[in-house]
């Protein structure tokens, strides 16, 4: 039941975000005096509506987005009533049109920023000093987290009955123990522990010195076998190595909370990282198509592949089911930021395409005036329709592929 509740809550959060996106267009267009005739949440048949002034507001039957109808977005629009010619959108200065078209993405960014700030002062944001690379992790003290088995391949997964039992568990080591020596070799860091273990062989007996709650202790165990690449070459050829069956407990906390003022700086820093990650994710989209197809046809789902609204809602359900509300809200932040950036891409029919056309017209008029030629006027959107349809076709196919993969072979963050 909690899983279903999470799915519904996340889907509702997305719907509210998209509705606010359209509200951004609505409010800025009205503020500049443009005529807005419709604002609806959803698509399809109208369930309920009312009219206030010149705008009809309402709710439609398919809750998969929303729309805002601004009269005369292009010179080719033919729904301009007599007397409204001066209020059509395309006649307004380019800076005003830019604000109106960018208002949707700005709304998504605002939702993300406010949520990040709230998390910064409540649950906390990821600690920038937390070790994120192997090199950083190896500098940490060898404080261990116990595993119940030794996974034979270099992958993170749950233990199975076929996996070897953890030698550390058999030796009665516990979570939080700090290993100080192995077979008499001093261990000052997690890197030292890995190096010392690699010098041994599977089946060797390891004499382990450790500190628990400030008290020293010793134990011994027989090392198991696993497959790992060389320590100095993570992409190298894997080979059999000795394994203790432990992981690292970093000495730094994973999250940091901030005061109301300090949270503004932390929000800015986290947003910068999010922006870089979003741009990199967009750049990787084309190369992820084969991975999505592999997942759809029965292969393993790459956790780095894109997810649809369906996949995001399923992850939201998992987060609520496991009481991981921070994950829920981080998903909300990431999705809003991604939608905001995506809508600013200079491609029709998204908002960024309209902004790009507006500034192209402005630049072209300026150049023509400088060379003494007549203003060529507005861009004919009808001539751009083939490119627009191509974007819609490619985007639609990618969306369907992503949704299908999320239904058939979804990404999961928790064991269910």
Automatic annotation (TrEMBL):
InterPro entries: PDZ_6, PDZ_sf, Pept_M50_Zn, Peptidase_M50
Domain Peptidase M50: 10-365
Gene Ontology terms, MF aspect: metalloendopeptidase activity
Predominant location: membrane
The species this protein was found in: Micromonospora taraxaci
Domain PDZ: 160-197
Keywords: Hydrolase, Membrane, Metalloprotease, Protease, Transmembrane, Transmembrane helix, Zinc
Membrane topology type: Multi-pass membrane protein
GO BP terms in the entry: proteolysis
One GO CC term, this protein: membrane
Cofactor needs: Zn(2+)
Family, per entry: Belongs to the peptidase M50B family.
This protein's name: RIP metalloprotease RseP
Localization per record: Membrane
Domain of life: Bacteria
Stored Pfam families: PDZ_6, Peptidase_M50
Residue ranges of the TM segments: 99-120, 387-408
